[in-house]
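Lab notes, practical 5.
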Amino acid sequence: MKVLIVLGISAAIAFTAVFFSFLQTGKDVVFEIEDNCITEAIQKASNLVDYATQYALKRNIQGKGIASPTSLLTFSKFPEQDSQDISQAAERMEMSIQVLKQKVCKKYKRSLHPTDHLSADLLTMIANISGCLPYMLPPKCPSNCLANKYRLITGACNNREHTRWGASNTALARWLPPAYEDGLSQPRGWDPSIRYNGVRLPLVNWFFSQVREVTRKIIHASNEAVTEDNLYADIIMVWGQYIDHDISFTPQSISRTSFLTGKECQMTCERQNPCFPIKVTTNDTLSKGVDCLPFYRSSPTCGTGDHSILFGNLSALIPRQQINGLTSFIDASTVYGSTSNVENKLRNLTSEEGLLRVNSKHRDNGQEYLPFTDRVPSPCAQDSNTSEDERIECFMAGDSRSSEVTSLTAMHTLWLREHNRLARALKAINSHWQAETVYQEARRIVGALHQIITLRDYIPKIIGQDAFNQYIGLYKGYDPTVNPTVSNVFATAAFRFGHATIQPIVRRLNAQYLNDPELPNLHLHEVFFSPWRLIKEGGLDPLIRGLLAHPAKLQVQGQLMNEELTDKLFVLSNNGSLDLASLNLQRGRDHGLPGYNDWREFCGLPKLETQTDLNAIITNQKVTEKIMELYHNPSNIDVWLGGLVEDFLPGARTGPLFACLIGKQMKALRDGDRFWWENDNVFTEAQKNELKKHSLSRVICDNTGISDVPVDAFQLGKFPQDFKDCSTIDGMNLEAWQEIFQEEEMCGTPKHVENGNFVYCSESGESTVTYSCQHGFQLQGEEQLTCTNKGWNFQAPVCIDINECENEINPPCSPTAKCINTKGSYKCLCTEPYKLAEDGRTCIDSTF
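Output from the prediction step:
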């Protein structure tokens, strides 16, 4: 009974600040648990996490002027609401266990280890109070007809037995056990006294802390030291980045200060969660008076790390794991989002054509732009020649990184336009379709095109046809035993090979594919977070022509990454910089990725023992000398670096290790996806034949003013001889999607429901209709109606507004804000002198 009371109270107050104040004052709440020491530990840990989060939000709202590189990275890595809730719950849980480990409890007369004398009921209570427990439960999967027709926006329930496989806001997959120093969560390099393969490296070359030295001595190249690819155009690099953002996004900790010490991560070299700073030397171009560059660890997932004891065998702890905020599937989540909350923001819910929202202020020669973000003022750069009243904010898309660089923004914009083009055309040939049907059908086509372009046109060029045949092969149908979840090593290392293919110069060309004096070449750092350049400097067309007609940078061992990325990442002014190579190396250690040799053995490749072994797979021996100077042993090499420097396979743009890891991942994404475009009953044979005709070049023709393109957009060619008029570029005939509408004579048209939608879905010879509600509303009544000889078997349901403000378990606003319910949503309001923080939920004292 005691435990039930506690669980009931904790569920009701959901670990809010109100709860903390009750605990601190001792009023209104009576807690009787096994040991007050445990209560104090949980309270302290959660206060530390929540304070650090609120401090970060305070700093964000107080920031004025040009954004720093760190704040830009934070903006693009800021998780949407569902990810925020999971991240914060997991960090509370992790800190609770850490504090319990350190705290001396009178009852035990020693530091308490979490496995000591803690009942299962009490452990469950801790998990519940932290907010973790709900995220450990499997999702509820719909059983209606549409569950077999359209994928859920979250990716959940794709696999009927393993409903979380591939879903958003779940853990990245582990293909090998992680390599943490303490076996649970501490990254390699956290403790300088630990030896690796018999080596404790001297402090001056302590590579486990000084990833920046690896960048400077092995990876960095000047902007002029660029070898251009003789086969592939610059757009192949953009597609790789774009597809990466379709299948993986690991949010970093929202907090900006150490949980235990309260020190700002930007002001300390101390390694205390979530701070894992990158050491720089005094003669480093990035030092500028600081000893370290700030680095924030990726948020853990509930049920991993130190607190995994709560959810499994006490003798088999699950090491720390990281979140994938997106669906793992190639499903165009870049266009539609990976949660219902994001999807709702992106849709034009007043349109009868199932359209996506577009920018209400600006057009591109009559074509659509992405809408602006609702997180204003956003940190994106502004045209220095315009006033503050003419701000151009960051764009909003299915992925939060859409404004990072103009070429990526252009790709997002192309697919926004393609969805709306398809939706209008589908509605025109199927006038009886409801908006929801049009939206879902267009979404399904766009997702299929992403899959086709990636597996047919992109991946064979990257890993080579031989590796494609070895690791991917022909499609044999959906395999429910294959886990499609994106792996940690793929997201954190292998698919980041593309960073070595980025050109330092951005080119914009006129209709004759010539340089335009009004649109001069730009250095890459001049287009970071600069959507204003698209809107005010020629729109998409000149930029896409530059991507089509100029080569990608070739990944050369002595020219891995140019200074735009290693010295000027996200630089909008002279207030600091970041280094993408160092971030990649540090992120791999943060995620506990095993070393280079471990992954070679995983792929069946020979283990490398000496520099001579390295020389056999790396042509540039100066590079192997520098690697051995810093790493001492091939087994110590970071997997991202090791895979990057291998000689290319024949006909490929990666070496054998990355070809293996990318190939295995792509096969899993294909074979483990029940909605893969080639799978039975996803499309008709006629529709599949039409989809095969389409291409990225056709998408460009249909959604820009460009009239001449290569047949294969990725293949480098010269204008005009290698370009074709758009009228000769094949594309889909949407008549394959035309339905002959016969209104149900016995039942008639189903009743339209306000704030809801319905979709026809025939099953087992029966005519059925399935209803759904818009985000912020809940269905009241029967979800699925079937036509019988007496008419529809049920009355149409209604969509009732959800009063989010009544949710006491997971309140939408923090206790510092007042929650006001609105139709289909809610608002968090603050009173002066408080302002709403970036999360849209917390009130921050702006005068502090």
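Observations recorded by the TA: DSSP finds 25 helices and 26 strands in the chain. The mean pLDDT is 85.
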